[in-house]
Design goal:
The complex is a heterodimer of chains A (298) and B (183). Chain A is elongated, with a radius of gyration of 27 Å. In chain A, strand 10 and strand 11 form a beta hairpin. Chain A has 3 helices and 14 strands. Chain A folds into 2 domains: 33 residues; 254 residues, Porin. With 298 residues, chain A is mainly beta. In chain A, the strands form 2 sheets. In chain A, strands 2-3-4-5-7-8-9-10-11-12-13-14 form a 12-stranded antiparallel barrel. A two-stranded antiparallel sheet of chain A has the order 1-6. Chain B is α+β, with helices and mostly antiparallel strands. Helices cover 16% and strands 49% of the residues of chain B. Chain B is built from 2 helices and 8 strands. An 8-stranded antiparallel β-barrel of chain B has the order 1-2-3-4-5-6-7-8. The longest helix of chain B is centred in the N-terminal third of the chain and has 18 residues. Chain B starts with a helix and ends with a strand. Classes of the chains: A mainly beta (298), B alpha+beta (183).
Chain lengths: 298, 183
């Protein structure tokens, strides 16, 4: 009999406690709100950190029209208005085919080069229901140099004009303000200037941004080249180093930078940066990005 | 002795049944819309959760900011990054009571109501009274509401640079189709 009593009391309490619990609408609401996967967004403001690609890419059906300029070096002096007398341009159209694939094509005036690229998103940094510490993308491009061949008398092949770039982009948004990216890079050039130049170039890129305000960020980028020079070359190559700011104004992102690189493509600024920061070989430059949406309905 | 317990249990169970009078919608629709000559902005979520307590007319809503989607990916990014600061304030919440609530409202055809409660957006609480409707429609308990909010009231700053693209007020639309809770 005693035991039965206890069972009844327990049952009774159970029913009542269930009651009081369900009285709390807030608790119910939180229980019913599904945990979500929180993807890190806007690790960087634009698809470039400064010269090199960032982890960011256009979402599906978004088109990015980019125009970039690099002026001449500061050490041109007053005669060349500290580099402003001359400029190199690169413009490109870059389209998000899907959320994970971006294709782009561009033309740069340096070495009259056309380029086309693909960027694949492989992993996305996330927290919440799914934890992933970094974002990972694969970037690849082909560059076509259309300068007239230096020596028209020798047999020149079309393939001699091509260079290939492969990059892994590994980025982490540490907090709302600070993001960091590593970009191991491999570049193969079918034809190089002299037999002393390397066909295969290995480099490691370091990129970071720090948000100064919601619409302004400070960026820095450095590409360490593992085999830039050998002692017989007459041209000395330097590692590409850049600092800049991103200014966001709704549909535009303006990137203004100081860099020792004149080129705006991987095949150019990674292996062929010929200016030295310590010799005032600094170029002022800017990138302008304008995004157009072709998305009808989501 | 046994009988007393039996009575108690029945009592408890009936209490349970009474407080079971809750209704839930897990895929409620919430949108906000702003229109200016420069740009129309529409953000929509179909993943808001709402619970209605039929014993006292209390109603709660909760929506995760990241469930709002936009036509332009960039708008969505700016919404989360620059305006709502979704990592800091992941949820918007409303907790209110239907004015002059009677249980019959829930089985009558759709009729106009007023709801007063606290809206929490961007970490800021504000008491609001909004118009709405509630009642049976096509065999389902539905509730709707349409009202305006001012982003500045919730500490959401809009810089002068984009002021002419974002309306002074946002029109909020809410639609929910409820099912009895626990089913």
């Amino acid at each position: 009999m005693k035991r039965i009593q206890y069972i009844f009391i327990a049952l009774f309490l159970l029913i009542f406690s269930g009651n009081t619990y369900s009285q709390d609408l807030d608790a119910l609401l939180n229980a019913e709100t599904k945990p979500t996967i929180d993807y890190a967004t806007a690790t960087f403001k634009a698809s470039r950190i400064i010269n090199g690609h960032s982890i960011e890419q256009m979402k599906k059906r978004q088109l990015d029209f980019r125009i970039s300029h690099r002026f001449g070096p500061l050490n041109d002096g007053a005669y060349g208005l500290f580099g402003l007398d001359q400029s190199k341009i690169h413009f490109s159209l870059e389209y998000g085919v899907t959320d994970w694939l971006m294709l782009g094509a561009g033309r740069g005036s340096l070495n009259k080069t056309y380029d086309s690229f693909a960027k694949f998103r492989l992993l996305r940094q996330s927290s919440g229901a799914k934890w992933m510490p970094v974002s990972l993308s694969y970037f690849t491009s082909v560059e076509l140099n259309t300068l007239k061949f230096q020596d028209p008398t020798r047999t020149n092949y079309f393939s001699s004009r091509l260079a290939f770039v492969h990059q892994l982009l590994i980025a982490r948004k540490f907090n709302d303000k600070f993001s960091f990216q590593l970009s191991p890079t491999f570049i193969h050039r079918n034809l190089v200037k002299t037999e002393l130049d390397m066909n295969d170039v290995y480099a490691m890129g370091f990129g970071a941004r720090y948000k100064l305000s919601k619409r302004l960020s400070l960026n820095a980028e450095y590409y360490y080249n593992y085999n830039p020079n050998n002692k017989f070359q007459d041209t000395k190559y330097y590692n590409s180093a850049s600092v800049g700011v991103d200014i966001e104004t709704g549909g535009h992102v303006f990137q203004i930078m100081l860099t020792n690189s004149l080129g705006m493509r991987e095949g150019s600024f990674i292996p062929q940066t010929t200016d030295d920061w310590f010799d005032k070989g600094i170029h002022l430059g800017f990138n302008i990005s304008r995004v157009f949406s072709f998305q009808k309905d989501r | 002795m046994k009988k007393i317990f039996l009575v108690l249990i029945v009592l408890g169970a009936s209490f349970g049944a009474f407080s079971q009078g809750k209704f839930i919608a897990k895929n409620a629709y919430i949108s906000f819309y702003s229109s200016t000559p420069m740009e129309d902005i529409l953000g929509e979520s179909n993943e808001a959760v709402t619970i209605l307590d039929s014993s006292n007319g209390e109603i709660v809503f909760q929506a995760l900011m990241t469930t709002f989607h936009f036509k332009r990916a960039l708008m969505e990014e700016h919404f989360n990054e620059n305006y709502m600061e979704s990592t800091k304030f992941p949820k918007a919440k409303f907790k209110g009571t239907i004015e002059g609530f009677k249980k019959e409202m829930l089985i009558a055809p759709v009729a106009n109501i007023k709801i007063t409660g606290v809206l929490n957006v961007h970490g800021v609480d504000k008491t609001i009274t909004v118009p709405g409707t509630i009642g049976m429609e096509g065999g389902k308990l539905v509730a709707t509401s349409k009202f305006k909010v001012t982003p500045e009231d919730y500490g959401i700053a809009i810089p002068s640079l984009v002021r002419d693209k974002i309306g002074k007020e946002m029109e909020i639309t809410v639609k929910a189709s409820y099912l009895p809770y626990g089913q």
